[in-house]
Structures are given as C-alpha cells and as structure tokens.
Amino acid sequence: MPPAGAGRGGAVRPVGAVTRGTTTPNRLRRVDNWIAATCGDLLRDAHDPLVVDLGYGASPVTVVELRARLAAAVRPDVRVVGLEIDPVRVAAAAPAADPPWLVFGRGGFELAGLRPVLVRAFNVLRQYAEPEVAPAWRTMTGALQPGGVLVEGTCDELGRLACWLLVDATGPRSLTLAARLSTLDSPATLAERLPKTLIHHNVPGTGVHALIRALEEGWRDAAPYATFGPRQRWRRTVEAVRAAGWPVLDRPARWRLGEVTVAWPAVAPPGDSPVREPR
Ligand SMILES: C[S@@+](CC[C@H](N)C(=O)[O-])C[C@H]1O[C@@H](n2cnc3c(N)ncnc32)[C@H](O)[C@@H]1O
Q: How far is 52 from 76, CA to CA, in rounded Å?
C-alpha cells in the first residue's frame, strides 16, 4: 500500500484547511453501522477494500472504531486509512496504527493519492463555507474507485443526533437522519445537525424544511404510540411520512434504529445540479 500522502504521482499537497479537532469515542457509531449495512456489498465486492476516514481530529479513536466495525460486520481484510490535514494530529495517531489494516497519514480532499472505495468525512465540511462543499465533493469523489461512494455528514458531540449524505461521482444520492430515540424530543432538533449543504436551506419553501416539518407532525401525531416505546413511535412517524409521498429509501429494520433515508432530489436545495455526469 502506498503511504498516505504519497500515492499515485508521488508527493501530494493536502487540499483544505486545519479546523477544530473535536472528537469523542463512539460518536460515529450510527453512521458506521449504516455504512456496514448499506455499503457492505460495495465493500465486499471491492477488489481493493480500502476505506478512507478524512479529518479524524485530535484523536484517532473514531478511525479505530470504523476499522473494527467494518472488519467485524463486512470483511476482516478491510483496510482503513485515517487522513488528517494537521500534521500534529497525524503524529499523535501513530501509536494507534495496526498496519496494513489501519494506518494514518497526512492528506486533504485529494485523499493523498489513495484510491478508496469508500470515504467517510464526518464533521469536516461543516467548518467550511457552503460554496466550498461541492468542489470538495468533486475532489473526493474524483479520487474514488469506480462505483465508490463518499459518506459526508455531521453529528452532535455524543453522536445522538446525526445527518449524512451518500455522495457518488454524480453528486448526492440520499440524505439520512438518525437519532437516539430514547432522548429525542422532536425530529426538529435534527435540523441543527444537517450537512453544510442543507443547513442554510432549512427555511419555508424548501424540501428539507418540508421534510423536517413532516417528521415533526408525524412524531406529534404518533404520540399515543410512545407507550409502546420510542421505536414504535418513530416507526409510525416514518410510515406517515412515506404515506404522504416522501421517497423513503430504507426499510423498517433501519427505522427501528432511529433512522430515515430519503432520496436526494426531495431535499436538494433550489438550483441544485449534479456534481458531474456519471463516469
Ligand atoms: C471536528 S474534527 C472531526 C473529527 C471526527 N471526524 C469526528 O467526527 O469526530 C474535524 C477535523 O477535520 C480536519 N480537516 C479539516 N479539513 C480537512 C481536509 N480538507 N482534509 C483532512 N482533514 C481535514 C481538521 O483538521 C479536524 O481535525
């Protein structure tokens, strides 16, 4: 495996900027479990099952967890490379490496010349300006193996509320909202964790605003089901949203985990256009 930072054409200048490094153990468990379930076949079928976690922060703990979860749930030979643009954080992560399965290196949106099948970038783009998002997606998806995907999103400090996008070479495919149901007051709180590309568009008249309102109304109407537990209440909520015509992509097995995934066109901001034509 080429060392991160010196892949396809030798030395690569990392694309991006150092930002806050806040992270916490187990914070990304929701998205990791979703990746294992939803992208498992993509990883299983890959000739080179390489995954990049971009922007892991002040501690490599969430990269270690990603590798462990994918190795247990998808395939034991999955290789995970944690890339960070901050060299101090790269050096700090070195003791956690377990080559060749888990390594750390310096890199940015260009992915250090690596060619992964999947990239997870969590709580990275939220610290950039909105116009920087699409170019960053383009750079990352342009470095993927054919058919590869980017999972880009945001969560709260403890990972109780999380939102993420599945992005491929053509642009975003879906939006997933996920919450710890036992502490969820209202689906409206998920709005604070929307990915950068959507958070400023959560205003009346947009798809994402309408989706959050539909979830709120569904949650309110499903209040009587709370006596059977928050999972039953969420299930009723998602069923109501789907019955109202929202393009819900996932099945009840995911809903019981506090998730809902909808097709991107339903929530795309006004004027959204594909990142690029399919390869
Ligand atoms: C808030 S931390 C997120 C840590 C972890 N992913 C999580 O969700 O807990 C964001 C990290 O992304 C890094 N970062 C920002 N832009 C980057 C880029 N273009 N390439 C690689 N790392 C980047 C920052 O240096 C910072 O350490």
A: 16
